[in-house]
Amino acid sequence: MVDLNTYPLESLKVSKTIRDAFWQLESHIVDVSIPANYSDVHIELEDQSGNNKAVFCGITAPDESYDLKLVEEAVDIYAYDLRWFLSRQFVPDTQLVLASTDDIITYIEDLLGGSNWATVTGVEPYKIRSPDPAISKKEFIFNPDTSKLDAIAEIADYYNCIFEVKWRNAGTEQSPNWITCAYFIRSGEIDDEVDGLDLPLPAVLEKTDNDILEISVANSSDDKYNRVIAIGCDSSGNWYTGIVESPNVTNGTAKPREYMEYPSPYVASQANADQHASELYGLFNFPVKRISATLAKRHDIELYQLVKFDGWTEYANALYTVGQTGVNWVRIVEISHVKTATSSEVRIVCVPDRDLSHSRLKGYSVSPNSVDITESIVMDVLASQASTEIGVATLPESGSMTTVALNRGGTITAKVLGSDESIVLPINNERVIVSGGGGGFSNPAENDLDMREFKVKSTTEDLVFQAPQVKKIIFQREPTT
C-alpha cells in the first residue's frame, strides 16, 4: 500500500456523492516519480482534533497528466476506490440468475469473491444485510455483459438498499493494513448502531466553533411533484392505480406536476397502490433544499452522516425539522476533502433526511451535473428496451398456470387464459418468450392482444403466438412472495 502522504502533494481532492459509483481522488504532485498504474494507495488527513483520518483507499488509474516546465516538473494523478474492479468484472455464468428463493446475502458475497475476495475484487463482504422482508422478492436475470457493480446496484435499487464501501485498518498504527469493506444495508437502517453504515454520531456544527468557513442554502422546486401516481398489477394481470395529489390540484387552482412509477414492483393490490402513492408523495412533494458548507479540517465528517447547523438563525426557515424531534438534522449527500499547501478543508452538501436509496431522489439530491444527467437519460432509455429470452412451456392439462424454463437458466410463470380474457404484457416485461417459424400472428390474432404499448420483436424469424383451440397464452413475470 502506497502512502500518498510521502509524496510532495501540492493539492489533493477526495470526493464522492451518494450517486457516484466510487470514490475519486485527484492530486497534483510536484514530481514525476509517481506510483505505477493500479498501485494500491491511501491517504490520511489530520482533522481539527489532531487525529489522522483515512479519507481514501484505492488504486491509481491509468489517467496521468504531465506538466513539465523549466522550474517545475509535476504530474496529476487520479485514483478510484476498489469498486472500480466491480465495474470491470462481469457477473459469472453461474450467477446470471438470482432466483426469488436464493439468499441475497450469499449472492452478493459471492459476487465480491466470497472467501477469495482479497484476490478477486479486493472488496471485503463486511456487512451484507438481507433486504426488508416486507418487499416482495423477485427473480433477477442478468445478461452476460452485466458488470458486478451494475448487478449489485440493480438489486439494491429494487430492495431499497444502499451499497457503499468504507475502510478499516486490520493492522496496527505502525504497520497499517487497510481493508476496503463493503456495506449492503437497508436504507432505513443507515444510522443503526449494529446494522448501519458505522457512521459517527450526528455532528452539531456550531456557528461559534469557527469550523464553518462558508454556508449557503439553495432551494430548487424543479422536482417538486404535486401529483404522484403508482401503477402495478398482480399475478392475475389485474391492474391497480394509486393517485395522491395536493388539494390545490384537486380543486383546480394549480396545474399538475406529475411523477409516475409504472409499473411499480410494490403494487399488487389497490391497497398497495394507495399506500405506495402516499409514500412517494411524501418523498417528492416538497422542494429539494441543498445546504452547502465549507468546514476547516473537519475530515472526521463522513458521507451519509447527519449534521446540524446550530446558531445560524438566519437559516432557520430554510431547514426542515427531521430525524430527532425538534432538531434540524440534515444528511450529507456530497463530500470533498480538499488539501492545498495553505489550507485543509471539507466541503459538504446536505439535504433533509429522506429515503436516499430511491434512485430518483439520488439523482436530484446531489448537485446538477450535465454529464451525469445526459448519461442517466441514455441509460434510462437503454434500460427500458426489452431483451429476448427463449424458453419452453408445456400447456397444463388442467388449471391455468404453468412454468416456463428459460434456456439460459431461470424460470418465469405462464398463465393460460380463457377465450373471453385478454392478453396482458406489461411494459416492464423484461424477457418475452418467442417461437420461430412463419405465419406472423396466429391464434390469438394480433388485435386480440392488449400490449399496453409494449412491442414484442423477434430478431431471427417472424413472431408466432400459438395456442390450442380457444385458449390464449400470456407470458408475464410474476411477483413472488
Topology:
Layout: E1 2-3, E2 9-17, E3 24-29, E4 40-46, E5 52-68, E6 73-80, H1 83-87, E7 97-98, H2 104-111, H3 117-120, E8 123-128, E9 140-141, H4 148-158, E10 161-169, E11 178-186, E12 203-206, E13 212-220, E14 227-233, E15 239-245, H5 247-250, E16 258-261, H6 270-284, E17 288-296, E18 306-310, E19 330-340, E20 344-352, H7 359-365, H8 370-383, E21 387-389, E22 391-393, E23 401-406, E24 411-417, E25 423-424, E26 431-433, E27 449-450, E28 472-475
Parallel strand pairs: 1-4, 8-11, 12-18, 14-16, 21-26, 25-27
Antiparallel strand pairs: 2-3, 2-19, 3-6, 4-5, 5-6, 7-9, 10-11, 13-17, 14-15, 17-20, 18-19, 19-20, 22-23, 23-24, 24-28
Could you please describe the fold and organization of this structure?
- With 481 residues, the protein is mainly β.
- 14% of the residues lie in helices and 36% in strands.
- It has eight helices and 28 strands.
- It has helices spanning 83-87, 104-111, 117-120, 148-158, 247-250, 270-284, 359-365, 370-383; strands at residues 2-3, 9-17, 24-29, 40-46, 52-68, 73-80, 97-98, 123-128, 140-141, 161-169, 178-186, 203-206, 212-220, 227-233, 239-245, 258-261, 288-296, 306-310, 330-340, 344-352, 387-389, 391-393, 401-406, 411-417, 423-424, 431-433, 449-450, 472-475.
- Strands 1, 2, 3, 4, 5, 6, 12, 13, 17, 18, 19 and 20 form a twelve-stranded mixed sheet that branches.
- The longest helix has 15 residues, at 270-284.
- The radius of gyration is 26 Å and the shape is globular.
- The two termini are 46 Å apart.
- The model is unreliable at 321-326, 368-389 and 419-481 (pLDDT under 50).
